[in-house]
Specification:
Layout lengths: L21 H10 L9 H5 L10 E10 L3 H12 L2 E6 L2 E2 L2 H6 L6 E9 L5 E8 L16 E7 L2 H10 L3 E2 L4 E2 L9 E6 L5 E6 L32 E10 L3 H12 L2 E6 L8 H6 L6 E9 L5 E8 L16 E7 L2 H12 L7 E2 L9 E5 L6 E6 L23
Parallel strand pairs: 1-5, 6-10, 11-14, 15-18
Antiparallel strand pairs: 1-15, 2-4, 3-4, 4-5, 6-11, 7-9, 8-9, 9-10, 12-13, 13-14, 16-17, 17-18
The structure holds fe (ii) ion (2 copies).
The site of one fe (ii) ion (FE2) has 6 residues, from strand 6 and strand 11.
Length: 402
Amino acid sequence: MSDHLRGDGDVARMPRRAFLSRGALTVGALAAAPLVGARTAAARALHDVGRGELGLVGMDHVGITVPDINQAIEWYEDILGAVAPLSFGPLEGAFLQGVLDVPAGTKIDQITSLRIGHSANIELFQYEAPGQRHDMPRNSDWTGHHVAFYVTDIDAAVAYMDSRGVTRMFGPFSLTAGPAAGQTINYFRTPWGSYIEFISYPNGMAYQVPSVKPLWSPKQNGLEAPVTNVPGLLGVDHVGITVPDIAVAAGWFERNLGFINPLTFGPFSDTGDFMTALVDVHPRAVVEEIRMLRGGNGPGVELFKYTSPDQDTRFRRNSDWGGHHIALYVRHIEKGVEYLQTKAGTKLDGPLPVTAGPAAGQTINYFETPFGTNVELISYPHGMAYETQAPIDLWDPRDNHP
Ligand SMILES: [Fe+2]
Ligand SMILES: [Fe+2]
């Protein structure tokens, strides 16, 4: 392992904003109540989000297609301490082609939504589809992706994962230069070959100066670790996706959805085996650039531009293993969909209201993007049917604190 990891600058000593002020601790006390579903419209109305034609609140969930949904649910429950209050399916019929852009004859065996901590949920899919890809993307592939969880004490969280025998990449690794200085990360590989990350930035990052509106963090929902087995795990911090053209992808989020891009960093490469050790990619893979985007109050989207000798430059469909989408909560689905369609023009069939079963109450619409990851708009203004039975509800992005 060499020392030649390239950073990108000399701004590590920029003054850092006192990121965790007493405000965040106050929020922690307020955030305890929603754990049992005691939410109020009045509390939500205080939040300065969801205004404008799009009505964006923030990321609701990341959807991921897995080989064996029961294996994935059990792993998330056992290792991360997830709860799984909402499962539905099977679903089949020609309508799936138009709603999800999947091949004719596709069947969804099951959809299960997981909550971990107090941030966006993870929506697992098990699909059966003609021509379904049965390999998983590497982080450097165009469909590479990871889900990153914020942890308050990364050493303790990593020690826990080690004690559970989880496959861990090199780390914890701290960035000490450039605008992302202050963050420490560690990647893990799940038994079915997808990736999660732990990230911590207890004192914020170097880019956080008073003139910059920072990324959202699950720390803003309090520093208690709820609904998890991992010490100090607060919830999803960001979802990382590798894209063909990072400027096009960032522009799509910015123009169509009003995302902001307060943090850009990289490149990272190494002449030894460090890239393989750190993120399980080809040793000559290069992270050309990383852009962290914020949309509303919710986890960010981390865009990667990778080059790699073994890079797979095909997209995946939602029905392929490793297929994934990012779902954003909007206040009014009809208005939000109409707005995004006016801007992006890539709507799939919908809006589709779910009117029966445990997911009844949600309405969704997927959009295609130029970077291969569908973006879904979702709304459930009156909640969902499962909530009457669940001891712990899914996380509701309307409960995020700015
Ligand atoms: Fe979804
Ligand atoms: Fe990440």
